[in-house]
Specification:
With 822 residues, this protein is an alpha+beta fold. It contains 23 helices and 28 strands.
């Protein structure tokens, strides 16, 4: 299984192991602990190194961020005094730790980000928070040794490259070019006296590239373990508990889920038996065919995994990157070049033994104010540059090594040992709660009396690992007071059974639903579904071909999602999450239901149509589109008999439904298949048992149609997914699986990305969305909801923050939350 930077298959079912520990009784409500059912933790609770969402939630309880956002994800720039923002007809006043400012100097092409923190902030140990702590945080996140999930170094902060490589611009350029030349010469190049580099440099470059590549393979192992442990039993035949403390099994899991190995029983199993039932299991490498007898304690190492990777890709890191194997989208060659510059640049005689003492684009203006300058303007950058937590330098760093004026930033350059270690599992910050301990799969917190908004009303909080299918029962029994739950019909039925009123909110459990930060879709590849070949993918005939399919698929969305999700999902009509401020609203004058007009631009449906009449109308509209695409239609039979050049009478659509149709879009496809068959067009549904088939097809660009889901961010940056430079195989991010290449769309994406005027950006994004719909490469499908459930009996819900949203979680004002006295 291959991770995509933003592509998420709707397969994930969290599998968690846990024992339930009942909360203790207390008469004083403030002494009663709030117990929250949680998914398993990885014990990386540091604000710098937390990987999973659950570990980040632990960190978040202890930290204060520079940035404050409202219920729609909008930035509160004047948070010290506060701003009032309306949401759904109610005014809410937001305050935070810092005032923020973003200023773009168009003439100089420089953006300045400024943060001024309150002067009364304190960490939980009573130490005041100052600008030095912000500076320290930046220098950890931007140190070349930093390996956390934050990607702050992807932005063009002035002087960052020079600092990270300890070279001047001229020396950086010199060794950067040298690395490119070495790679172009090839791994098998035989060094000669006339080469522009020494033999030592040549050998060092390739050894360094392999180290970078191997490190990325190790990242796959960690990523798979953190994200896909729920698949361990089916792919590896071992439980999560058996894998947890076994590094070899973690490597095996990474190989199995990424398609570089397969585990099979030593002997055939009885019918109906599963892999986990096999007494003996063998792992076989996909490329080398090497075997490991897992049952006998033979486990693969990261070196073994690396051997599988390099064999599979014939030692070609470019092919590896193009296939999107890297869990974080790393470019091995680019990263190897940077490492090469870091190692050899500072040794160049032009540096005179001197390094680069600081990042010139980061400055402390006074004891409470810091600024960051970048080259150019990128709208999403503010969320990364000013969205950091303020980490205490006296805890995560060495106070004796911090002196801003002397370019000392709390830790040795290139060495973050002091920042990690045991501190990863014991976070400290200025947040509402203090971390106490993690014990027996429970995280314990205590209220921070130094919290700038006042000590929380609930003195004790526990995050308790709980199996996903036991969360609702835990709340009912009193073992937990709150928790997250998947919004499905079955889960809602369980809640309705607990509450005496038969609803999902009642006397036992209260449910809060909010939109997931992402959406489901059906994709159509313009390069494989067209008339006249991919060079004509943007022609009107090609668009009409795709619109024929899209119209039929779109009409069955509502009935399919109601059956699968019930109240927990809704149909969307634009390729953007409803959670985004840029999402078109039904009240907008130019809002249209997706694929609801025919080839002549007339509305297909009327308000008084029955569902059956709509299905028939969609079929007839599809006939019109296919005719316009050049298909031959037999009026007597009502069926198409021939396709135009470059098109076909039969197309395939891939659904990751585990081979059993377990996917919200499976019913959409099935109904569309029947309707299309009535007019002579075949839609073949491919539901592979292994979802790798879908990912491999997307990687190769050979897929015709498919379904999956996108994860979203606060800022709706469309560059990675829709810009033509990112079409698979063109050397970009390879995330444009639609193969849409439209100059007008590219311009709109760049224009929106480089503007700081949200109203203008929304208008431009709407134009971009309309272009995508016109190309008919994506059928927007559903916006599903996440659910948080609370004990109606034990939590004082009058003190719960109202109007919970995707961007405003239930713990946003946790300091105000109270328990009911027992």
């Amino acid at each position: 299984m291959k991770h995509r930077k933003t592509l998420l298959a709707l397969l994930l079912a969290v599998s968690m192991m846990i024992g339930i520990v009942p909360a203790f009784a207390a008469s004083d409500a403030s002494e009663i602990p709030l117990v929250v059912a949680y998914s398993p933790f990885s014990e990386k609770f540091s604000t710098f190194f937390a990987d999973t969402a659950y570990d980040r939630d632990v960190s978040g309880m202890t930290q204060v961020a520079l940035m404050t956002t409202d219920r729609m994800g909008g930035i509160i720039y004047n948070a010290i005094e506060g701003e009032t923002v309306n949401y759904n007809g109610t005014d809410y006043h937001y305050t935070g730790a810092a005032d923020l400012k973003v200023d773009f100097d168009e003439e100089a092409n420089i953006t300045t980000y400024t943060a001024k923190i309150r002067d009364d902030l304190k960490f939980s140990d009573g130490v005041p928070v100052t600008a030095d702590d912000i500076i320290f945080t930046y220098y950890v996140l931007l140190d070349p040794a930093y390996v956390g999930s934050t990607t702050l170094n992807s932005y063009k902060i002035l002087g960052l490259n020079e600092y990270m490589t300890q070279t001047s611009t001229a020396v950086y350029d010199k060794y950067s070019q040298l690395a490119e030349d070495l790679f172009a010469a090839g791994r098998d190049h035989e060094w000669a006296e006339g080469d522009a580099w020494t033999k030592e440099l040549q050998e060092a470059y390739w050894a360094g590239l392999d180290n970078v590549w191997k490190s990325d393979v190790n990242d796959i192992v960690n990523y798979v373990y953190n994200k896909y442990i729920s698949y361990a039993e089916s792919y590896l035949g071992y439980t999560a508990d058996e894998i947890k403390d076994n590094e070899g099994l973690k490597v095996a899991l990474g190989m199995a889920l990424w398609g570089f190995g397969k585990v099979a029983p030593k002997e055939a199993l009885e019918e109906g038996a599963k892999l986990i039932d096999a007494p003996e299991k063998i792992l076989t490498g996909a490329a080398t065919k090497k075997t490991w007898d897992l049952t006998a304690g033979e486990y693969p190492t990261v070196d073994d995994y690396f051997a599988e990777v390099t064999t599979a890709y014939e030692n070609d890191p470019v092919a590896y990157v193009a296939a999107q194997e890297s869990p974080d989208g790393s470019d091995i060659v680019a990263d190897a070049k940077l490492e090469f510059v870091k190692v050899w640049g500072p040794k160049d005689e032009a540096m005179g033994g001197e390094g680069v003492p600081n990042i010139k684009g980061i400055k402390k203006l006074d004891d409470y104010t810091v600024e960051v300058k970048t080259e150019g303007y990128e709208a999403p950058a503010v969320y990364s540059i000013l969205g950091i937590d303020i980490a205490p330098k006296h805890y995560y760093g060495d106070p004796a090594m911090f002196n801003y004026e002397e370019n000392q930033f709390g830790h040795p350059f290139g060495d973050l040992t002091i920042v990690g270690g045991e501190k990863n599992s014991k976070p400290v910050g200025a947040g509402p709660y203090k971390f106490v301990k993690y014990e027996n799969r429970v995280v314990y917190f205590e209220a921070n009396e130094n919290y700038y908004k006042g000590a929380p009303k609930i003195k004790y909080v526990q995050f308790k690992e709980t199996a996903a299918n036991e969360v609702a029962a835990a709340l009912r029994s009193g073992a937990a007071d709150a928790g997250e739950m998947s919004g499905t019909k079955d889960n809602f039925a369980t809640l309705q059974g607990y509450n005496s009123n038969g609803e999902i909110t009642g006397d036992v459990i209260t449910t809060s639903k909010f939109d997931n930060l992402g959406y489901g879709y059906l994709g159509i590849n313009a390069d494989t579904v067209n008339v006249g070949g991919k060079e004509n993918a943007g022609s009107e005939a090609s668009k009409n071909l795709r619109k024929g399919f899209a119209t039929v698929l779109a009409i069955y969305r509502e009935v399919a999602f109601d059956s699968y999700y019930g109240e927990a999902a809704s149909v969307i009509n634009y390729p953007i999450s409803n959670t985004s401020w840029a999402a078109p609203q039904p009240t907008d004058p130019d809002y249209k239901v997706a694929f609801s007009v025919d080839v002549d631009g007339n509305d297909i449906y009327t308000s008084d149509m029955t569902p059956e009449q709509k299905y028939e109308a969609a079929k007839q509209a599809a006939v019109g589109f296919f005719k316009a695409a050049g298909f031959t239609f037999d009026e007597a039979t009502g069926k198409f008999t021939a396709a135009p050049e470059g098109a076909k009478m039969s197309y395939e659509i891939i659904v990751p439904g585990d081979g059993k149709g377990d996917h919200p879009n499976f019913a959409v496809m099935s109904n569309a298949k029947e309707t299309l068959a009535e007019i002579g067009i075949e839609l073949k549904i491919n539901d592979p048992a292994n979802s790798n088939e879908l990912w491999n097809a997307l990687d190769s660009g050979e897929q015709e149609m498919w379904t999956a889901a996108w994860g979203s961010t606060i800022d709706p940056d469309m560059y990675q997914v829709y810009h033509s430079s990112n079409i698979v195989g063109l050397g970009g991010s390879d995330s444009n699986h639609y193969h849409i290449a439209d100059e007008e769309l590219d311009k709109a994406i760049i224009d929106a990305r480089q503007s700081d005027d949200q109203a203008y950006r929304k208008t431009v994004y709407k134009k971009a969305l309309d272009i995508i719909v016109d190309w008919a490469v994506e059928v927007p499908a559903y916006q599903r909801q996440n659910c948080i459930i609370f004990s109606t009996e034990r939590i004082n819900l009058d003190t719960l923050t109202p109007d919970i949203t995707t961007y405003w979680g239930w713990m946003a004002e946790i300091e105000k939350l109270e328990m009911n006295a027992k």
